[in-house]
Design goal:
The protein has 440 residues and is an alpha/beta fold. 40% of the residues lie in helices and 18% in strands. The strands form four sheets. The chain has a five-stranded mixed β-sheet with strand order 6-5-4-7-11, with helices on both faces. Strand 9 (167-170) and strand 10 (178-180) form a beta hairpin. The structure holds zinc ion (ZN). Zinc ion is lined by residues 257, 267, 269, 271, 274.
Length: 440
């Protein structure tokens, strides 16, 4: 059996579970440590602390990693414990508009088994959920595990989600994904708890636990950061005061739709002058292809085969995959020194920097972590963003904030999704049944 916080008589909110949660959190925060130190830190009696640690070790949530040196006054050496991050397992699912990644990961973010599937022509909820469940069962069988061996399953989704209800309210590029009770459906099919969150929130969890959100600039544990998604849509996640801020409706972070030009371009959301109308890669590709008479044509220096025979009157009519291919070709040309591409990327970065300056003035974060397509813009993009922020943000706020690219690789979505189940363990959410969570 793998580890589970639900081992033993699980009475939500019981003193036993509270003690168990307190000691578990301390093991993660201050470990490696000893039973006497845990008792001092927690205020829980020594006998109770000792029993809780033994229980956690028996259920593989804690591990003994050595002994202390004998004390000079003749005191006996004591066992040293820590949270058994390598011994826990979570299911991780990262849904994209064109594919789904599924994995079993441990508490260190290591992937133990993984399968990626492109989504077929039918991307409606039912076939996609069937694919997720089937793939998770295949991976569990591959590792010789049962669903109950998991802390739970975390699912990252490209859309508007309710973390607390486990519902996908809307996924703009997935047909008929409206108010889908994803958590409930997958939990019922697998027999384990399931958490759902949007892709940007999931990215921030990965940064906090395994990326450059782990430490502050002074090396302090954790930092106040904003992770910002660049690409066709722009969004953000706020990791403030030691926690991911989701907001009462779980929608915090839709910064792509903050107005930066009152009479600006029409946005997909119906508003005018949203930040993403000028700072997305859709704008970048549109500007590259815009001709003097207002029509669109791919310039000769931009050679993207999918675009050659593609005529269009509005950049918003172009398929997302083609936009992405063109944007990456522009970033590549800029990095190779093409002057037109270089100028376009600097303008794109300048618009991006305006939005970041607003964010920095608003939230005073220690770090802004940029991820997504525009990371391919490299130093040209990043230098320009920093320059614009330097010109526009208030001095005290900008001096305390560094702007960096993510350093996590393409597994980041999976690792972040798996972190949903890990965080639920430490937030005590694993004590609640899926039904009681839906009452929130
Ligand atoms: Zn908008």
């Amino acid at each position: 059996m793998m580890a589970s916080l639900r081992d033993g008589p699980a009475v939500p909110g019981s003193l036993r579970q509270m003690n168990r949660l307190t000691i578990l959190r301390l093991l993660r925060e201050i470990g490696p440590t000893t039973k006497p130190a845990l008792a001092r830190q927690s205020g829980i009696s020594r006998p109770t602390t000792s029993k809780v640690v033994d229980d956690l070790e028996a259920s593989r949530l804690a591990e003994r990693i050595g002994m202390t040196q004998p004390a000079s006054n003749g005191g006996k050496p004591g066992a040293i414990y820590r949270f058994n991050a390598g011994g826990v397992r979570s299911g991780a699912v990262f849904l994209r508009v064109d594919a789904v990644q599924v994995a079993i990961i441990d508490g260190n973010g290591h992937v133990h088994a993984r399968l990626d599937h492109p989504l077929g022509s039918d991307r409606h909820p039912e076939p996609v959920i069937d694919l997720i469940v089937t793939t998770l069962k295949d991976l569990l069988a591959q590792l010789g595990l049962m669903a109950d061996d998991l802390l739970g399953v975390g699912i990252g989704v490209p859309g508007l989600t309710s973390f607390h209800k486990g519902i996908v309210h809307f996924a703009p590029h997935l047909p008929d994904w409206r108010d889908v009770p994803l958590s409930e459906l997958v939990a019922a099919a697998l027999g384990t708890q399931v958490w759902v969150d949007n892709d940007c929130h999931v990215q921030a969890l990965a940064e906090r636990h395994f990326g450059i959100g782990q430490t502050g600039r002074s090396g302090a544990n954790g930092c106040e950061f904003v992770s910002v998604q660049s690409g066709i849509g722009l969004s953000a996640a706020f990791y403030l005061d030691g926690a991911l801020y989701r907001g009462p409706g779980d929608t915090a972070g839709e910064i792509g739709h903050m107005t930066v030009q009152e009479q600006g371009l029409l946005c997909d959301c119906g508003n005018r002058g949203c930040w993403e109308t000028v700072a997305s890669i859709t704008w970048l590709v549109g500007e590259a292809c815009r001709t003097s008479d207002g029509t669109f044509q791919m310039p000769q220096w931009l050679n993207v085969s999918a675009m050659v025979d593609h005529s269009f009157h509005n950049i918003r009519d172009v398929a997302p995959a083609i936009i992405t291919s063109c944007a990456h070709a522009i970033f590549c040309a800029a990095r190779a020194g093409n002057p037109e591409a270089d100028a376009l990327v600097r303008r794109h970065a300048s618009h991006f920097g305006v939005g970041l300056a607003n964010l920095i003035n608003m939230l005073n974060p220690q770090r802004i972590i940029i991820w997504g397509d525009s990371v391919a813009g490299g130093e040209v993009f990043l230098e320009t963003v920093r320059k614009v922020v330097g010109e526009r943000a208030l001095m005290r706020a900008r001096e305390n904030c560094e702007i960096v690219f993510t350093q996590l690789d393409h597994d980041v979505g999976l690792i972040g999704a798996g972190s949903l189940a890990l965080d639920a363990l430490f937030d005590g959410l694993s004590l609640e049944s899926p039904a009681s969570r839906q009452m929130v």
